[in-house]
């Protein structure tokens, strides 16, 4: 695993195959980073499914309303919800969507990001300047690569637990 340089801005996601460490970029997308940390600290991401996983593109998760594997998970609803917090304004930047980048999912409205996010399997520079890039995988990308594919997957993988490294 990579050395954690900034525990307050590092998330640790436990997947079925192992841990993934995410370095957050508060200087690039401060509101998005704060939202992810707040939802993480409230336990909202624990047991949430990867509901949209496209080979060669990305794995999307974070629907805390409809993709919690412990509450009546409905694959037709997964990906349609967010948190009870207000949507976030876009924080677009020049940080490229390379393999391992973290992007905030949204509707066609650029200011509609809420709780859902995605991890890039491959470079996706067509997303640059269109979505908020708020971090990157610094360790455990092999575990991200092993996430079950599908839209939605028949038997989705989930984030077993998500923690801010400073809290561990």
Describe this structure in words.
By secondary structure, this protein is mainly beta. The protein has helices spanning 30-41, 141-145, and strands spanning 10-15, 18-24, 48-49, 52-54, 58-61, 101-104, 117-120, 133-139, 158-159, 161-164. The strands form 2 sheets. The protein has an 8-stranded antiparallel β-sheet. A two-stranded antiparallel sheet has the order 3-9. Strand 4 and strand 5 form a beta hairpin. It starts with 9 loop residues before the first strand and ends with a strand.
What oligomeric state do the depicted chains represent?
single chain
The number of distinct β-strands equals 10
Structural class, from helix and strand content?
A: mainly beta
Number of DSSP helical runs: 2
Largest sheet descriptor: 8 strands, antiparallel
Rg over C-alpha atoms, rounded to the nearest angstrom: 14 Å
Uncertain spans, ≥5 residues at pLDDT below 50? none
User: Could you say which overall geometry the principal axes of the C-alpha atoms support?
Assistant: globular
The CA-CA distance between the termini, in Å, is 15 Å
**What is the mean pLDDT?**
94
């Amino acid at each position: 695993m990579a050395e954690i340089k900034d525990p307050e801005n590092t998330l640790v996601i436990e997947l079925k195959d192992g841990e993934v460490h995410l370095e957050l970029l508060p200087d690039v997308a401060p509101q998005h980073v704060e939202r992810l940390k707040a939802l993480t600290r409230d336990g909202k991401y624990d047991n949430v499914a990867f509901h949209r996983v496209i080979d060669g593109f990305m794995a999307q998760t974070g629907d805390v309303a409809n993709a919690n594997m412990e509450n009546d998970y409905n694959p037709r609803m997964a990906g349609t919800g967010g948190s009870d917090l207000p949507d976030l304004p876009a924080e677009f930047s020049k940080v490229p969507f390379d393999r391992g980048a973290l992007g905030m999912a949204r509707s066609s409205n650029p200011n509609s990001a809420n709780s859902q996010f995605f991890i890039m399997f491959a470079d996706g520079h067509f997303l640059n300047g269109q979505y908020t890039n708020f971090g990157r995988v610094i360790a455990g990308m092999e575990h991200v690569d092993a996430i079950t594919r599908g839209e939605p997957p028949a038997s989705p993988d989930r984030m077993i637990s998500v923690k801010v490294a400073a809290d561990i």
